[in-house]
Amino acid sequence: MESTPYFHHDIGSHMYFLSSAFPIHGPGSLFLAYFSTALLCWGERALTVILEGVHYSYPVPKSRIMLRSSLYALSIILRYLVMLLLMSFHLGFFIVIVLSTFLGQVAVEFYRARSIHPHHTATDGPFSSAFSSGGGPSYIKLQQSIMSHARNPPPAPSGDGDACS
């Protein structure tokens, strides 16, 4: 039995893009396959960002649940298609997938960075004092902040309809 290298870069007679319905015969069809691979990777990154942006509010409509579930299923399909391309062990597909997912994530991070309000920080919230000084999170500061909030709980709401009075 002949041993084959893990990664190869040749265009053989039996090379296909995901299925035998899309054969790769030469440089033109290989470029089209690479471009389609990049679109798959960018589409997966875009769907993930869209999925993160779909939030629930009470009451949750069934259409919102179906939308999130459908987007998740579509993102899984794209991820598995990319996995199948990686399993071809073609060096070109490997490089295209790594570069296009990297560039897609860079675009995602720029999009997220643009959408942050100038006065908002990632540490805004009830425990922000634990992260505000010293250049980074500290376990002791975080623990002190949690204990401070535990000792001084917010006041109980005063109710007109108190059943115990």
TrEMBL record:
Keywords: Copper, Copper transport, Ion transport, Membrane, Transmembrane, Transmembrane helix, Transport. The chain crosses the membrane at residues 20-42, 71-87. Its main location: membrane. Belongs to the copper transporter (Ctr) (TC 1.A.56) family. SLC31A subfamily. InterPro entries: Cop_transporter. It comes from Piptocephalis cylindrospora. GO terms for cellular component: membrane. It is a multi-pass membrane protein. GO terms for molecular function: copper ion transmembrane transporter activity. Pfam families: Ctr. This is Copper transport protein. It is found in: Membrane. It comes from the Eukaryota.
